[in-house]
């Protein structure tokens, strides 16, 4: 194996499969492994390098599967281990790598360990795998401190002891059904090393690590000064008691040893909402994780100044630890980019879907999302594409309230709709049962007209988002990946223009008026029609041979 093929991930495009909403093979209204296997040729033809599959473990799905009841199995609604093995073999046969999602900060309350913890009582080794504390006040009736769940409400829940009396409290950063593990406990550490090996031995190529900046906590930390607690908010105070604590790095050094014991080595991608970029870079040191989502980029406004700052920051800071930058516009937690870029405010404060209000111009958002795709895919490093992004799906903003499943909806007292709007099952066909998603409907309702955005409608249609992604992913392979980004002095303030090597340039017009293109030999790809050969309209990007 050459160094270049060991380093495949450095400029890879990784496609995110939200399995419950991707494709339904057995007609029960939920996506599954069978559906995904049937669509692998679609993914190969799209031109991506790898898949990242959201959690598929047994789970009550209180938080879309991020509440894991058994880390070494697959939920029957998605398939079984034998099917998973077949999926891995088939994907590898098509030249696609496969990453899973590991959720080390917490389990489901349906996990065997948590059931044992409740049954065993205070002070037991079973309780020591989680974070149980006595309450405050005379009867212990008050939570141990004022910390809040990022889904809303307190981060503590009181249990009822087996004899029916009120007992201790357990800590949960997320939903009440997601108790946090105690990572000070060596048994928890050993358990996760074993889980990693379990999946690596099955053939999985790596993991996306959920809440990679969680796990290590200072449970003696002070009460926190809350104003409004936002979902997945980055730590906004120094020395946060449960996010981005220095102790987490030692865990990753151990995980890296496991990854490197395989040939080829396995890969880790951090989901870490930390800032500034220097803090993120610490996760990507040589002996820790390989790569991380660039949420600073995702949250940036659609302005040349914001994006350029984010690009420069990311590239230079990550280079200081030898890690490539990555680029991401969407995932299953944030508002779809077609919608976000169609709003008056295009920056995303917390990155959180379901919060933004106000008018959306989907046509404008789509034009910008097309330009943003060419920008992202021309930048040096890796990129992520969330399922349906390649179809230009908008956020579904009007899901009926009774269909909402994100725990954010309940925990926010029905003030935030949560993230279901970006999780609506994919349209594969122009018509028919759930627009080709499956034969038995879809677990979240699809809006009318969803079929017009389907793969069938977009396929072979030169002006479709799908054709743009296919062309860009194919042509991207000829952009010299070793060449760094070199900014070209742009003619206008609202323009981003850069070269990658001597022959390739990308120019994006984020302003309101058309601009002159720099000298070039040929337009390789354009996100929208050009005024003439040398003028780039507003909200349009081009790849040029120069
Ligand atoms: C981040 C995941 O992306 C999100 O969907 C989940 O709710 C939280 N982590 C908790 O696991």
UniProtKB/TrEMBL annotation:
Highest taxon of the lineage: Bacteria
Hydrolase keyword on record: yes
Pfam families reported for this sequence: Alpha-amylase
One GO biological process term: oligosaccharide catabolic process
Domain named Glycosyl hydrolase family 13 catalytic: residues: 16-423
Keyword field contains Hydrolase: yes
GO molecular function: alpha-amylase activity
Keywords (A to Z) from UniProt: Hydrolase
PANTHER family: ALPHA-AMYLASE FAMILY MEMBER, NEUTRAL AND BASIC AMINO ACID TRANSPORT PROTEIN RBAT
Record family assignment: Belongs to the glycosyl hydrolase 13 family.
Protein name as annotated: Glycoside hydrolase family 13 protein
Organism of this sequence: Jiangella rhizosphaerae
Lineage, uppermost ranks: Bacteria, Bacillati, Actinomycetota, Actinomycetes, Jiangellales
């Amino acid at each position: 194996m050459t160094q270049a093929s060991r380093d495949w991930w450095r400029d890879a495009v990784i496609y995110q499969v939200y399995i419950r909403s991707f494709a339904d093979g057995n007609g029960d209204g939920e996506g599954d492994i069978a559906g995904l296997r049937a669509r692998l040729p679609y993914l190969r033809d799209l031109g991506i390098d790898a898949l990242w599959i959201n959690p598929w473990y047994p789970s009550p799905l209180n938080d879309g599967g991020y509440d894991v009841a058994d880390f070494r199995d697959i939920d029957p609604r998605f398939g079984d281990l034998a099917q998973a093995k077949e999926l891995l073999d088939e994907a590898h046969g098509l030249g696609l790598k496969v990453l899973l999602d590991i959720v080390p900060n917490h389990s489901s309350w349906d996990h065997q360990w948590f059931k044992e913890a409740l049954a065993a009582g205070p002070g037991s080794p079973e309780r020591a795998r989680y974070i149980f504390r006595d309450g405050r006040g005379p009867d212990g009736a008050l939570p141990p401190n004022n910390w809040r769940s990022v889904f809303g409400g307190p981060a503590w829940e009181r249990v009822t002891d087996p004899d029916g009396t009120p007992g201790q409290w357990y800590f949960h950063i997320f939903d009440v059904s997601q108790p946090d593990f105690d990572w000070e406990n060596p048994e928890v550490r050993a358990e996760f090393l074993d889980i990693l090996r379990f999946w690596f031995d099955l053939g999985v190529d790596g993991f996306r690590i959920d809440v990679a900046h969680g796990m290590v906590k200072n449970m003696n930390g002070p009460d926190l000064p809350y104003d409004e607690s936002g979902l997945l908010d980055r730590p906004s105070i120094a020395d946060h008691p449960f996010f981005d604590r220095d102790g987490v790095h030692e865990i990753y050094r151990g995980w890296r040893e496991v990854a490197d014991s395989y040939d080829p080595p396995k890969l880790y991608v951090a989901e870490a909402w930390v800032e500034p970029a220097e803090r993120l870079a610490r996760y990507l040191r040589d002996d820790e994780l390989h790569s991380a989502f660039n949420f600073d980029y995702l949250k940036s406004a659609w302005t040349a100044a914001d994006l350029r700052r984010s690009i420069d920051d990311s590239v230079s800071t990550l280079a200081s630890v030898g890690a490539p930058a990555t680029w991401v516009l969407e995932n299953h937690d944030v508002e779809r980019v077609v919608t976000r870029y169609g709003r008056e405010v295009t920056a995303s404060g917390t990155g959180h879907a379901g919060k933004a209000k106000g008018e959306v111009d989907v046509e404008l958002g789509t034009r910008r999302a097309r330009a943003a795709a060419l920008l992202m895919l021309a930048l040096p490093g890796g990129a992520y594409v969330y399922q349906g992004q390649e179809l230009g799906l908008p956020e579904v903003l009007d899901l009926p309230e009774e269909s909402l499943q994100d725990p954010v909806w309940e925990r926010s007292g029905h003030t935030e709709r949560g993230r279901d709007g970006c999780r609506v099952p994919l349209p594969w066909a122009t018509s028919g049962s759930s627009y080709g998603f499956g034969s038995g409907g879809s677990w979240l309702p699809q809006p009318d007209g969803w079929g017009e955005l389907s793969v069938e409608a977009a396929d072979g249609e030169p002006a479709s988002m799908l054709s743009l992604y296919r062309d860009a992913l194919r042509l991207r392979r000829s952009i010299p990946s070793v060449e760094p980004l070199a900014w070209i002095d742009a003619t206008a303030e609202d323009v981003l223009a850069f070269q990658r090597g001597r022959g390739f340039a990308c120019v994006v017009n984020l302003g309101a008026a058309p601009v002159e293109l720099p000298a070039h030999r040929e337009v390789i790809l354009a996100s929208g029609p050009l005024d003439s050969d040398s003028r780039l309209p507003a909200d349009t990007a081009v790849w040029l041979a120069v």
